[in-house]
Amino acid sequence: NSFAGRIDELTISQAIALQETEVQIGREDALTVTLAAGNLAVRNEYLNLFTVGRSAFVDSLINVLA
Hints:
The protein is an all-alpha fold. The protein is about 90% helix and about 0% strand.
């Protein structure tokens, strides 16, 4: 009984740790998506700002900077 109880305790604690890890990964994924969307918005604003005199070179610079 003591051995079975200990196995149950370890199983439950591992399940809790796994759930906490999944929640953390979900938060990190959401943050990554938010940051990527922000970067895309900044890039688009640069493209809108530099409409005059744009060339492939200027577009390349904007892609590197944003």
